[in-house]
Amino acid sequence: MRAIVLGDLRTVTMFKLMGFEGEQINDRDGLLRRLGELIEDRSVSAIFITSAVSRLAKREIASLRGKLRKPLIVELPSIEEGTVEEVDYLQLVRQAIGG
Fold it and tell me: Which of 13, 36, 35 minimizes the C-alpha distance to 24?
C-alpha cells in the first residue's frame, strides 16, 4: 500500500519527514495529470491532496471520488493556508485509512 501527498511545498515536506511519499503541485494541469497517473497505479491506495491544491480542480476531484473505490482521495488542510486551529495530520490520515 502506498499513500502519496500532493500539494504545496511546506505540507509535502512535512509529510515526507513523517515517511510519506509526496510531490509538490503548482498548477491545475500538473494536478490532473498526476492524479491520472496515480489512479492507474495499482500500488497506490490513498492520495492526500492539500486544500490549497485541491481548489485547482475541485469539480474533477469530486467526480473521481464518486467513481472510484480505490485509491482513496482525501483532502488535507494546507500548512500554507495558516489555519488558526492546530491540525493533527496523523489523526486525519488514520481516520481516512481506517486506522
Answer: 13
Identify the structural domains of the chain with CATH numbers, from first to last.
2-97 (3.40.50.10580)
Alpha-carbon gap, residue 88 to 18, rounded angstroms = 13
What predicted TM-score, i.e. pTM, was given to this entire model? Answer: 0.81
Name the DSSP class of 20.
Answer: -
Position 44 pLDDT exceeds 60: yes
How far, in Å, are 79, 83, 95 from residue 76 at the CA level?
Answer: 9, 12, 12
CA distances from 35 to 26, 31, 57, 87 (A): 13, 6, 11, 25
Q: Which three cell numbers stand for residue 61?
A: 476531484
φ, ψ of residue 27 in degrees (nearest 5): -150, 165
